[in-house]
Amino acid sequence: MATIFAAALLAVSTQAVKDFVEVDGARSNPLRGYGIVTGLNGRGDSPQGESARLLRAMLQNLSAPEVTIEKIEARNAALVLVTAELPPFQKPGTRLDVTVSAIGDARSLAGGELQLTDLRGPLGRRDPTIYALASGRLVVEGDEGRGNPTVGFIPGGAIVEKGLAHAFIHEIPEGRPGAGRKAFRLLLKKPDLSTAGRLVQQINASAAAGSGGRLEVAEALDGGAILVRIPTAEEYRAATGSAPACDFEREPVHWLDAVLNLPADLYAPEAAAVVIHDASRTVSWTGEVRLRSGSVLLPGSGEAARPSVFHARDGQRLSEFLEKVGPAVTSAQLVDLVRALHKAGLIQAEVRAR
Protein backbone atom coordinates (compact mmCIF):
# COMPACT_ATOMS: atom_id res chain seq x y z
CA MET A 1 0.00 0.00 0.00
CA ALA A 2 2.99 2.31 0.51
CA THR A 3 3.53 2.49 -3.25
CA ILE A 4 -0.09 3.57 -3.73
CA PHE A 5 0.19 6.46 -1.33
CA ALA A 6 3.59 7.48 -2.71
CA ALA A 7 2.05 7.74 -6.17
CA ALA A 8 -0.76 9.85 -4.84
CA LEU A 9 1.63 12.20 -3.05
CA LEU A 10 3.86 12.63 -6.09
CA ALA A 11 0.96 13.87 -8.19
CA VAL A 12 0.53 17.05 -6.21
CA SER A 13 -0.86 18.92 -9.19
CA THR A 14 -3.36 16.18 -10.07
CA GLN A 15 -6.81 15.63 -8.68
CA ALA A 16 -7.69 12.43 -6.86
CA VAL A 17 -10.28 9.79 -7.71
CA LYS A 18 -12.44 10.97 -4.80
CA ASP A 19 -12.91 14.35 -6.52
CA PHE A 20 -15.00 12.65 -9.21
CA VAL A 21 -16.93 9.94 -7.37
CA GLU A 22 -19.10 9.07 -4.39
CA VAL A 23 -19.01 5.70 -2.65
CA ASP A 24 -22.19 3.71 -3.19
CA GLY A 25 -23.82 3.00 0.18
CA ALA A 26 -21.98 5.76 2.03
CA ARG A 27 -23.89 9.00 1.47
CA SER A 28 -25.46 11.75 3.55
CA ASN A 29 -29.12 11.45 4.49
CA PRO A 30 -31.60 14.29 5.10
CA LEU A 31 -33.33 14.60 8.47
CA ARG A 32 -36.31 16.75 9.38
CA GLY A 33 -38.58 17.52 12.29
CA TYR A 34 -41.52 19.65 13.28
CA GLY A 35 -40.89 21.92 16.27
CA ILE A 36 -41.52 25.11 18.22
CA VAL A 37 -39.35 28.22 18.54
CA THR A 38 -40.07 30.31 21.64
CA GLY A 39 -39.02 33.71 22.95
CA LEU A 40 -39.99 35.73 19.85
CA ASN A 41 -41.18 38.86 21.70
CA GLY A 42 -44.49 39.29 19.89
CA ARG A 43 -43.18 38.37 16.43
CA GLY A 44 -44.33 34.75 16.41
CA ASP A 45 -47.39 32.99 14.99
CA SER A 46 -50.96 34.12 15.58
CA PRO A 47 -52.19 32.81 18.97
CA GLN A 48 -55.04 30.80 17.48
CA GLY A 49 -52.67 28.84 15.20
CA GLU A 50 -51.16 25.38 15.33
CA SER A 51 -48.08 26.61 17.19
CA ALA A 52 -50.23 27.61 20.18
CA ARG A 53 -51.80 24.14 20.29
CA LEU A 54 -48.39 22.44 20.16
CA LEU A 55 -47.03 24.80 22.79
CA ARG A 56 -49.92 23.98 25.15
CA ALA A 57 -49.31 20.25 24.55
CA MET A 58 -45.59 20.70 25.29
CA LEU A 59 -46.27 22.62 28.53
CA GLN A 60 -48.83 20.06 29.59
CA ASN A 61 -46.34 17.28 28.97
CA LEU A 62 -43.69 19.08 31.05
CA SER A 63 -46.05 19.64 33.99
CA ALA A 64 -48.72 16.95 34.32
CA PRO A 65 -51.39 15.45 32.03
CA GLU A 66 -54.23 16.64 34.23
CA VAL A 67 -53.05 20.26 34.27
CA THR A 68 -55.14 22.56 32.06
CA ILE A 69 -53.14 25.16 30.15
CA GLU A 70 -55.07 28.36 29.56
CA LYS A 71 -55.28 29.87 26.08
CA ILE A 72 -51.98 31.40 24.99
CA GLU A 73 -52.54 34.93 23.66
CA ALA A 74 -49.00 36.24 23.08
CA ARG A 75 -47.23 35.84 19.75
CA ASN A 76 -44.06 34.54 21.35
CA ALA A 77 -43.82 31.16 19.64
CA ALA A 78 -43.63 29.91 16.05
CA LEU A 79 -44.16 26.57 14.36
CA VAL A 80 -41.01 25.61 12.42
CA LEU A 81 -39.57 22.97 10.13
CA VAL A 82 -36.17 21.76 11.31
CA THR A 83 -33.76 20.13 8.84
CA ALA A 84 -30.24 18.69 8.97
CA GLU A 85 -27.91 16.44 6.99
CA LEU A 86 -26.66 13.24 8.61
CA PRO A 87 -23.26 12.49 7.01
CA PRO A 88 -22.07 8.92 6.51
CA PHE A 89 -20.42 7.21 9.47
CA GLN A 90 -21.59 9.90 11.92
CA LYS A 91 -21.59 8.40 15.43
CA PRO A 92 -24.06 8.93 18.33
CA GLY A 93 -23.05 11.87 20.49
CA THR A 94 -21.58 13.95 17.65
CA ARG A 95 -23.24 17.16 16.49
CA LEU A 96 -24.91 18.41 13.30
CA ASP A 97 -25.70 21.89 12.03
CA VAL A 98 -29.42 22.66 11.87
CA THR A 99 -31.59 24.90 9.67
CA VAL A 100 -34.89 26.22 11.04
CA SER A 101 -37.62 27.83 8.91
CA ALA A 102 -41.00 29.24 9.94
CA ILE A 103 -44.14 27.48 8.72
CA GLY A 104 -46.85 29.84 10.03
CA ASP A 105 -47.24 33.61 9.95
CA ALA A 106 -44.36 34.52 12.27
CA ARG A 107 -42.70 37.80 11.30
CA SER A 108 -39.24 36.90 12.58
CA LEU A 109 -37.34 34.12 14.34
CA ALA A 110 -34.63 36.50 15.61
CA GLY A 111 -33.82 35.97 19.27
CA GLY A 112 -35.78 32.72 19.41
CA GLU A 113 -34.81 29.38 20.86
CA LEU A 114 -35.71 26.04 19.35
CA GLN A 115 -37.26 23.70 21.85
CA LEU A 116 -36.20 20.04 21.87
CA THR A 117 -37.17 18.57 18.49
CA ASP A 118 -36.73 15.00 17.29
CA LEU A 119 -35.31 14.61 13.78
CA ARG A 120 -36.35 11.64 11.67
CA GLY A 121 -35.98 10.39 8.11
CA PRO A 122 -38.07 11.43 5.08
CA LEU A 123 -41.05 9.36 6.30
CA GLY A 124 -41.45 11.59 9.35
CA ARG A 125 -43.56 10.08 12.15
CA ARG A 126 -44.05 6.92 10.10
CA ASP A 127 -40.38 6.22 10.79
CA PRO A 128 -40.11 5.33 14.50
CA THR A 129 -36.36 5.96 14.58
CA ILE A 130 -35.15 9.25 16.05
CA TYR A 131 -31.76 9.93 14.46
CA ALA A 132 -31.00 13.22 16.22
CA LEU A 133 -32.38 15.70 18.77
CA ALA A 134 -32.18 19.42 17.98
CA SER A 135 -32.44 22.49 20.21
CA GLY A 136 -30.72 25.79 20.87
CA ARG A 137 -30.54 29.52 20.19
CA LEU A 138 -31.12 30.57 16.58
CA VAL A 139 -28.80 32.69 14.48
CA VAL A 140 -30.84 34.72 11.98
CA GLU A 141 -29.33 36.73 9.13
CA GLY A 142 -31.18 39.96 8.37
CA ASP A 143 -34.28 41.58 9.83
CA GLU A 144 -37.84 42.29 8.71
CA GLY A 145 -36.62 44.89 6.23
CA ARG A 146 -33.55 43.04 4.97
CA GLY A 147 -32.76 39.39 4.31
CA ASN A 148 -35.03 36.60 5.47
CA PRO A 149 -35.65 36.70 9.25
CA THR A 150 -37.94 33.64 9.15
CA VAL A 151 -35.02 31.28 8.46
CA GLY A 152 -32.38 30.63 11.10
CA PHE A 153 -29.43 28.35 11.82
CA ILE A 154 -28.10 26.56 14.89
CA PRO A 155 -24.44 25.57 14.45
CA GLY A 156 -23.99 22.18 16.11
CA GLY A 157 -27.62 22.36 17.21
CA ALA A 158 -28.44 18.64 16.91
CA ILE A 159 -26.97 15.68 18.77
CA VAL A 160 -26.91 12.39 16.86
CA GLU A 161 -28.84 9.68 18.68
CA LYS A 162 -28.51 6.90 16.12
CA GLY A 163 -26.10 6.54 13.24
CA LEU A 164 -26.97 5.02 9.89
CA ALA A 165 -25.88 1.55 8.89
CA HIS A 166 -23.78 1.77 5.73
CA ALA A 167 -23.18 -1.28 3.56
CA PHE A 168 -20.59 -0.10 1.06
CA ILE A 169 -18.73 -3.41 0.67
CA HIS A 170 -20.58 -5.89 -1.57
CA GLU A 171 -20.02 -9.31 -3.06
CA ILE A 172 -19.59 -9.44 -6.81
CA PRO A 173 -22.74 -11.08 -8.23
CA GLU A 174 -22.73 -14.35 -10.16
CA GLY A 175 -21.99 -14.03 -13.84
CA ARG A 176 -19.33 -11.32 -13.42
CA PRO A 177 -15.56 -11.83 -13.20
CA GLY A 178 -14.51 -12.48 -9.62
CA ALA A 179 -18.02 -13.57 -8.53
CA GLY A 180 -18.23 -13.96 -4.75
CA ARG A 181 -15.26 -11.66 -4.12
CA LYS A 182 -15.62 -8.42 -2.15
CA ALA A 183 -15.89 -5.12 -4.01
CA PHE A 184 -17.28 -1.59 -3.77
CA ARG A 185 -18.94 0.67 -6.31
CA LEU A 186 -17.93 4.22 -7.12
CA LEU A 187 -20.70 6.48 -8.47
CA LEU A 188 -19.61 9.32 -10.75
CA LYS A 189 -20.73 12.75 -9.57
CA LYS A 190 -21.21 13.66 -13.25
CA PRO A 191 -22.03 10.47 -15.17
CA ASP A 192 -20.15 10.22 -18.45
CA LEU A 193 -18.97 7.16 -20.40
CA SER A 194 -15.62 8.73 -21.31
CA THR A 195 -14.91 9.81 -17.73
CA ALA A 196 -15.81 6.35 -16.39
CA GLY A 197 -13.49 4.70 -18.92
CA ARG A 198 -10.57 7.02 -18.13
CA LEU A 199 -11.05 6.55 -14.38
CA VAL A 200 -10.96 2.76 -14.79
CA GLN A 201 -7.74 2.97 -16.81
CA GLN A 202 -6.07 5.23 -14.26
CA ILE A 203 -7.18 3.17 -11.25
CA ASN A 204 -5.85 -0.04 -12.82
CA ALA A 205 -2.60 1.64 -13.85
CA SER A 206 -2.02 3.48 -10.56
CA ALA A 207 -3.03 0.76 -8.10
CA ALA A 208 0.35 -0.89 -8.65
CA ALA A 209 2.26 2.35 -9.28
CA GLY A 210 6.02 2.28 -8.87
CA SER A 211 6.28 -1.47 -9.52
CA GLY A 212 5.87 -1.49 -13.29
CA GLY A 213 2.95 -3.88 -12.86
CA ARG A 214 -0.74 -3.42 -13.42
CA LEU A 215 -3.49 -4.40 -11.01
CA GLU A 216 -6.75 -5.04 -12.89
CA VAL A 217 -9.28 -4.29 -10.16
CA ALA A 218 -11.66 -1.75 -11.74
CA GLU A 219 -14.28 -2.02 -14.47
CA ALA A 220 -16.92 0.42 -15.68
CA LEU A 221 -20.46 -0.92 -15.23
CA ASP A 222 -21.83 1.99 -17.26
CA GLY A 223 -21.28 5.74 -17.54
CA GLY A 224 -22.25 6.30 -13.93
CA ALA A 225 -20.74 3.44 -11.91
CA ILE A 226 -17.37 1.74 -11.51
CA LEU A 227 -16.91 -1.60 -9.76
CA VAL A 228 -13.61 -1.90 -7.85
CA ARG A 229 -12.60 -5.34 -6.63
CA ILE A 230 -10.59 -5.82 -3.43
CA PRO A 231 -7.39 -7.73 -4.27
CA THR A 232 -6.07 -10.68 -2.32
CA ALA A 233 -2.63 -10.45 -0.71
CA GLU A 234 -1.26 -12.87 -3.34
CA GLU A 235 -2.72 -10.84 -6.21
CA TYR A 236 -1.30 -7.62 -4.81
CA ARG A 237 2.14 -9.18 -4.29
CA ALA A 238 2.21 -10.59 -7.83
CA ALA A 239 1.41 -7.17 -9.33
CA THR A 240 3.61 -4.97 -7.14
CA GLY A 241 6.41 -7.30 -6.04
CA SER A 242 5.78 -6.47 -2.36
CA ALA A 243 3.33 -7.52 0.31
CA PRO A 244 0.45 -5.19 1.19
CA ALA A 245 0.61 -3.30 4.47
CA CYS A 246 -2.52 -5.19 5.60
CA ASP A 247 -4.99 -7.79 4.41
CA PHE A 248 -7.32 -5.68 2.28
CA GLU A 249 -10.01 -8.37 2.23
CA ARG A 250 -10.20 -8.30 6.02
CA GLU A 251 -9.76 -4.51 6.26
CA PRO A 252 -11.47 -3.19 3.10
CA VAL A 253 -11.58 0.43 4.36
CA HIS A 254 -7.81 0.68 3.81
CA TRP A 255 -8.18 -0.39 0.17
CA LEU A 256 -11.09 2.00 -0.35
CA ASP A 257 -9.02 4.85 1.12
CA ALA A 258 -6.07 3.97 -1.13
CA VAL A 259 -8.22 3.91 -4.30
CA LEU A 260 -10.01 7.17 -3.48
CA ASN A 261 -6.67 8.94 -3.08
CA LEU A 262 -5.12 7.66 -6.30
CA PRO A 263 -4.20 10.44 -8.76
CA ALA A 264 -6.74 11.07 -11.51
CA ASP A 265 -5.79 13.33 -14.40
CA LEU A 266 -9.02 13.57 -16.37
CA TYR A 267 -8.42 16.83 -18.17
CA ALA A 268 -10.24 16.86 -21.51
CA PRO A 269 -11.75 19.61 -23.63
CA GLU A 270 -15.26 20.50 -22.47
CA ALA A 271 -18.07 19.39 -24.76
CA ALA A 272 -19.54 22.34 -26.59
CA ALA A 273 -22.92 23.22 -25.06
CA VAL A 274 -25.06 26.33 -24.63
CA VAL A 275 -27.57 26.87 -21.82
CA ILE A 276 -30.27 29.55 -22.03
CA HIS A 277 -31.50 30.57 -18.56
CA ASP A 278 -35.00 31.91 -19.15
CA ALA A 279 -35.64 33.01 -15.56
CA SER A 280 -32.56 35.24 -15.33
CA ARG A 281 -32.42 36.01 -19.07
CA THR A 282 -28.79 34.97 -19.32
CA VAL A 283 -26.77 32.66 -21.57
CA SER A 284 -23.86 30.41 -20.58
CA TRP A 285 -21.74 27.98 -22.58
CA THR A 286 -18.88 25.50 -22.28
CA GLY A 287 -16.23 24.40 -24.73
CA GLU A 288 -15.49 25.87 -28.14
CA VAL A 289 -18.98 26.79 -29.37
CA ARG A 290 -18.76 27.77 -33.03
CA LEU A 291 -21.26 29.09 -35.55
CA ARG A 292 -22.19 28.29 -39.13
CA SER A 293 -22.47 30.96 -41.77
CA GLY A 294 -25.89 32.61 -41.78
CA SER A 295 -28.01 35.59 -40.73
CA VAL A 296 -30.90 36.20 -38.33
CA LEU A 297 -33.33 39.11 -38.10
CA LEU A 298 -34.24 40.39 -34.65
CA PRO A 299 -37.25 42.68 -34.05
CA GLY A 300 -36.53 46.08 -32.50
CA SER A 301 -37.02 46.64 -28.78
CA GLY A 302 -39.63 49.37 -29.22
CA GLU A 303 -42.79 49.79 -31.29
CA ALA A 304 -41.11 52.20 -33.69
CA ALA A 305 -37.72 50.50 -33.63
CA ARG A 306 -36.55 48.90 -36.84
CA PRO A 307 -35.49 45.24 -36.88
CA SER A 308 -31.80 44.41 -36.93
CA VAL A 309 -29.97 41.81 -38.99
CA PHE A 310 -27.01 39.93 -37.50
CA HIS A 311 -24.54 37.94 -39.58
CA ALA A 312 -22.52 34.95 -38.36
CA ARG A 313 -19.38 33.69 -40.13
CA ASP A 314 -18.60 30.04 -40.64
CA GLY A 315 -16.38 28.84 -37.79
CA GLN A 316 -16.84 32.02 -35.75
CA ARG A 317 -16.78 31.55 -31.97
CA LEU A 318 -20.04 32.29 -30.16
CA SER A 319 -18.10 34.35 -27.60
CA GLU A 320 -16.61 36.51 -30.37
CA PHE A 321 -20.02 36.97 -32.01
CA LEU A 322 -21.72 38.02 -28.74
CA GLU A 323 -18.91 40.41 -27.80
CA LYS A 324 -19.30 42.12 -31.17
CA VAL A 325 -23.11 42.50 -31.09
CA GLY A 326 -23.43 42.99 -27.31
CA PRO A 327 -23.32 46.81 -27.25
CA ALA A 328 -26.11 46.98 -29.85
CA VAL A 329 -28.72 44.88 -28.03
CA THR A 330 -30.39 44.65 -24.61
CA SER A 331 -29.95 41.65 -22.30
CA ALA A 332 -33.38 40.32 -23.29
CA GLN A 333 -32.58 40.74 -26.99
CA LEU A 334 -29.28 38.92 -26.51
CA VAL A 335 -31.13 35.84 -25.23
CA ASP A 336 -33.61 36.08 -28.11
CA LEU A 337 -30.69 36.35 -30.54
CA VAL A 338 -29.05 33.16 -29.22
CA ARG A 339 -32.39 31.37 -29.42
CA ALA A 340 -32.84 32.59 -33.01
CA LEU A 341 -29.35 31.36 -33.94
CA HIS A 342 -30.24 27.96 -32.51
CA LYS A 343 -33.56 27.72 -34.35
CA ALA A 344 -31.82 28.64 -37.59
CA GLY A 345 -29.32 25.80 -37.03
CA LEU A 346 -26.35 28.14 -36.86
CA ILE A 347 -24.98 26.99 -33.47
CA GLN A 348 -22.70 23.94 -33.74
CA ALA A 349 -23.36 22.67 -30.20
CA GLU A 350 -26.08 21.29 -27.98
CA VAL A 351 -28.46 24.04 -26.84
CA ARG A 352 -30.61 23.62 -23.71
CA ALA A 353 -33.11 25.88 -21.96
CA ARG A 354 -33.50 26.05 -18.18
Give me some keywords for this one:
354 residues; alpha+beta; six-stranded antiparallel barrel; five-stranded antiparallel β-sheet; 19 strands; 21% helix; 31% strand; flat; disordered N terminus
Give a written overview of the molecule.
Residues 1-13 have low confidence and may be disordered. The strands form 5 sheets. A 6-stranded antiparallel barrel has the order 3-4-5-9-7-6. Strands 2, 10, 11, 12 and 13 form a 5-stranded antiparallel beta sheet that branches. The protein has helices at residues 2-10, 50-62, 193-206, 233-240, 252-260, 318-325, 331-343, and strands spanning 15-16, 21-23, 29-38, 77-86, 95-102, 113-119, 132-137, 139-143, 146-160, 170-171, 182-188, 218-220, 225-229, 263-264, 273-277, 282-286, 294-298, 308-312, 350-353. The chain is flat and about 80 Å long. The protein has 354 residues and is an alpha+beta fold. The protein is built from 7 helices and 19 strands.
* Number of extended strands: 19
- Measured on Cα atoms, how large is the radius of gyration? 29 Å
- Low-pLDDT parts are 1-13
Q: Multimeric state of these chains?
A: single chain
Shape: flat
> What percent of residues adopt helix (DSSP H or I)?
10-25%
Strand residue content:
25-35%
Sheet/helix structural class: alpha+beta
Order of helices and strands: HEEEHEEEEEEEEHEEHHEEEEEHHE
Number of helices: 7
Q: Major β-sheet, in short?
A: 6 strands, antiparallel, barrel
Strand order of the largest sheet: 3-4-5-9-7-6
Q: How far apart, in Å, are the first and last alpha carbons?
A: 46 Å
Mean pLDDT: 82
